[in-house]
Amino acid sequence: MTLQGWIMILAFVGILLALTKPVGAWLFALYEGRRTPLHALLGPIETGFYRLAGVDPHEEQSWRRYAVHMLLFNFVLMLFTYGVLRLQGILPLNGLGHDGIGPDGAFNTAISFITNTNWQWYSGEAALSNLSQMLGLTIQNFLSAATGIALAFAFFRGFARRQSATIGNFWADMTRITLYLLLPVCVVYALFLIASGVPQTLAASVDVTTLEGVRQTLALGPVASQEAIKMLGTNGGGFFNANSAHPFENPDALTNFVQMLSIFVIGFGLTWCFGKAVGNTRQGWAILSAMLVLFLAGVTVTYWQEAAGNPILHGLGVAGGNMEGKEVRFGIVASALFAVVTTAASCGAVNAMHDSFTALGGMIPLFNIQLGEVVIGGVGAGIYGFLLFAILAVFVAGLMVGRTPEYVGKKIEAREVKLAVLAIAILPLCILGFTALAAIVPAGLAGPLNKGPHGFSEILYAFTSATGNNGSAFAGLSAGTPFYNALLGIAMWLGRFFVIVPMLAIAGGLAAKNHTPESAGSFPTTGALWVGLLVGIVLIVGGLTFLPSLALGPIADHLAMINGQLF
């Protein structure tokens, strides 16, 4: 580890902290439905959409109606994307002549992109046309991100409202978030990427002559527009197979740094927005502090392990850190930081191959996802996931002080705790259950390219990434088979919507309650003690649940490595 590396990490965190309040204030304006400076330009489009769709933006919805509209919307989007992928071979803008995607592959990809997972079993440039990339995937990048933020807004209203039967309007939330946040930011972002050398064209490819005199065909397409929302919306699906390690997606150190910032910036802003919504911004800063403790701990371990390198290679006289699977233009620190950022959020974009990280260096990205991706988290999903842990934390605190648990003025009772546990439990149920199945059946065992604990880690990472709606992979798993496409698709669906529905039920129940003023017996939820309790609950739940599987995978892999054995 170097001083220069730590300066970059601290500068990264410092810039995000400086952006937290401005971004949070913009999000809060959208949360309240207030006018923004962009309404003068985009307001008529918003109004036109409501008229065309027959939507009254002022008509509030109960949590059940909000959930049903959200589920139906995403189901229709899944069918639409499935159809585009299946019919790709006869649709236009298919300059390289790609055939339609098979049923299991189209099923997996359609679910992947509507759940904000963006797991990719295929190589983008070798399987998808420009139309499929734009119409099938980029649109879902916007709408899945907007869905996550809309759901966060609905959860905030549950805490903020008093004796209310409603939590907002799904269609109004979706429209405002897309029009006044995601779309304008991505237009500017895409222009920056184009200026940096990222392609943006409808041309399918270009023929070039290499320095060795060999003729080579390079795939092209509308890359910058997809790259912008891929990062800002924490989607992560790459236009190219190498994802953000590809120079056409991530040309240099500056674009790499901006991409990392864009993954986290909305997640940071949502914590301030939550504090503002409940009338106490210190609540938001407390949540962000707990997130940062977990994030910096993960960065420290990953950077330390990758900088230390492989002791077996050191014994052979190969000095230095672990550069296997990393881009020279980014180096160890930017690769390690990117890996932790993309898995602390539900992004899944990669600028290095996680399969080539050291055992413990690769364990941290895996563990980040297993915690529910609440360490900053994805757009919306991170903050509402963290608030589920906050409900458990105040329940534990209430048991310790002998009073009914309270959080931001709302009593947390048995219903809320049961629903929070239900939402949190879906992750280990799917991750461990599907991993166990894949680790014993022939179709599952045919996937890993490595043996021993590393091969087990590849399977474990795949189902962790799918259920956690992350989308990154250990890359050493041949997952493009009917077995893995089907099982991973089911895991993505369960990991997204079986968390959302209990969360919305909690929001509806909290909104119906009256506000309970703080008293002398209330547990304070803005200080260092609360931050420590939050961190402890997140680690204990994650540690107790996943430690045995981690012991079989990356921990066993690490112990084998220090004893001279590699897999």
Strand order of the largest sheet: 1-2
The ordered string of helix (H) and strand (E) elements is: HHHHHHHEEHHHHHHHEEHHHHH
- Gyration radius, rounded: 23 Å
Number of H- or I-type helical stretches = 19
Label the overall shape. globular
**Amount of helix:** 55-70%
- Mean pLDDT, as a whole number? 92
Beta-sheet strand percentage?
A: under 5%
User: What composes the largest sheet?
Assistant: 2 strands, antiparallel
The residue ranges in which pLDDT falls below 50 over 5 or more consecutive positions are none
Cα distance, first to last residue? 26 Å
Which structural class do you get from the secondary structure elements? mainly alpha
DSSP summary, beta strand count: 4
Walk me through the topology:
Layout: H1 3-32, H2 39-53, H3 63-86, H4 103-114, H5 124-127, H6 130-160, H7 170-196, E1 205-209, E2 215-219, H8 223-232, H9 253-277, H10 281-308, H11 311-315, H12 331-344, H13 359-370, H14 381-401, E3 406-407, E4 410-411, H15 414-438, H16 442-445, H17 452-467, H18 482-511, H19 528-562
Antiparallel strand pairs: 1-2, 3-4
Characterization of this structure:
This protein is an all-alpha fold. It has a domain at 38-266. Helices cover 65% and strands 2% of the residues. The protein is built from 19 helices and four strands. It has helices spanning 3-32, 39-53, 63-86, 103-114, 124-127, 130-160, 170-196, 223-232, 253-277, 281-308, 311-315, 331-344, 359-370, 381-401, 414-438, 442-445, 452-467, 482-511, 528-562, and strands at residues 205-209, 215-219, 406-407, 410-411. Strands 1-2 form a two-stranded antiparallel ribbon. The longest helix has 35 residues, at 528-562.
